[in-house]
Amino acid sequence: MKVLIVDDTNTDRLLLKLHLSKLGYKVIEAANGQEAIEKFVEHSNQLDLILIDVQMPCMNGFEAVKSIRKIQEQKKQEWLPVIFLSASAEDADIEKGILAGGDDYLIKPISQKVLSAKMLAMKRIADMRRRLVESNRILNELATTDHLTGSANRRAFESTLEHEMSSSRRYGSRLACAIFDLDKFKVINDTFGHDAGDAVLVEVVNRIKANLRAGDTIGRIGGEEFGIILPNVEESEVLAAFDRYRCIVADHPVVHESINIAVTASIGVAVYAGEEESKEVLLKRADESLYEAKETGRNRVVYHP
Ligand SMILES: Nc1nc2c(ncn2[C@@H]2O[C@H](COP(=O)(O)OP(=O)(O)OP(=O)(O)O)[C@@H](O)[C@H]2O)c(=O)[nH]1
After folding, report:
1. Where does 10-110 show beta strands of DSSP type E?
2. Inter-residue contact 192 to 259 (CB < 8 Å)
3. Which is catalytic among the residues 224, 235, 237, 292?
């Protein structure tokens, strides 16, 4: 468990550090409110608890914690327990501490026994918090990932598309969006079996992922249908970029259980450059190009600038 100790009195800070280190806690120190905020920002991913003195010059503990809570809210971070340490036993001060975002308030001088017990209680909260963060991470992954191919699922793909379209509007950049559909996939399933079909889907996604630039996205938007987003592309690069993906699929068969499975894909492209257009209309334009690619022989990229 990692604890940030904030106290402007060196001896108090040192004593606390000594005691917590003996109990096995890792300690980071700050000597004032401003430094506490800086240390919090630097270590927020690993911190489990803040122990902070109230009376400090320039910025007192209450103000520092209010700022920390604001940062946490902006960054959508999980709750981090805070214990105030103060020489004042006034009810009003205790109330202020809780209102400022504290979870507990200890009156100085603090007995080592009480501090050890409070630390144990906070460790329980820290463990619970860590489990919650991990569960949220797993839930988010499940909600946004296609379980077979590991690519973004339709929901995550559409949300990325919306985000990229708004960046395109803001910065005047151009983004290319394509619908990429494997050809005659039913025949692959019927000839080689559903497991072979699954292996083809996984291999195709892996090949494309290995060739995407940072910031590009592939998402599975249907059974054998994928969406690809290339933000910040030059008009002259669009066709060549998607033709490269077509070749990456068509040039080498997928080998499954020592059987070579030839696969091709048809790709329909639409480019967005900040127009008044919804993602549904953009995807519809890509879909119309895909339809044309299928109708005119498959294993083709169709793009009408
Ligand atoms: N193995 C496997 N097959 C899937 C999966 N999802 C969808 N499919 C199959 O993909 C096939 C899609 O067939 P169609 O929509 O007829 O299209 P197609 O055979 O690819 O023909 P064209 O798109 O016209 O070239 C169907 O047979 C689906 O059962 C999957 O997760 N795994």
Report:
1. 26-30, 49-53, 82-86, 104-107
2. yes
3. 224
Tokens at residue 243, please? 């033709």
Q: Report percent pLDDT > 90 for the chain.
A: 90
Q: How high does pLDDT run on average in the chain?
A: 94
pLDDT band for 177, please (50, 70, 90 cuts).
Answer: very high
Specify whether the CB–CB gap between 230 and 175 falls below 8 A.
yes
Q: Residue whose CA is closest, atom 11 of ligand 1?
A: 186
245 pLDDT band, cuts 50/70/90, is very high
Give 237's pLDDT tier (boundaries 50, 70, 90).
Answer: very high
- Size of the chain, expressed as the number of residues it contains: 305
List, in sequence order, every beta strand (DSSP E) within the chain. Answer: 2-6, 26-30, 49-53, 82-86, 104-107, 175-182, 217-220, 225-230, 254-256, 259-261, 265-272, 301-303
Structural domains of the chain, ranges and CATH numbers in brackets:
2-142 (3.40.50.2300), 154-303 (3.30.70.270)
Give the separation between CA 18 and CA 8, rounded to whole angstroms. Answer: 16
Active site residue 257: no
Q: 182 CA distance to ligand 1 centroid (A)? A: 8
Distance CA 72, CA 40 (A): 10
Atom of ligand 1 at shortest range from CA of 181:
23
Which H/E stretch holds residue 272? strand 265-272
At 126, the pLDDT band (50, 70, 90 cuts) reads confident
Residue 133: which pLDDT band, with cuts at 50, 70 and 90?
A: confident
Ligand 1 pocket (Cβ < 6 Å) reads: 148, 181-186, 189, 194, 197-198, 201, 223-224, 294, 298
- Residue 101 gets which letter from DSSP? T
Provide φ and ψ at 108, rounded to 5°.
-75, 145
Between 72 and 274, name the one with better pLDDT. Answer: 72
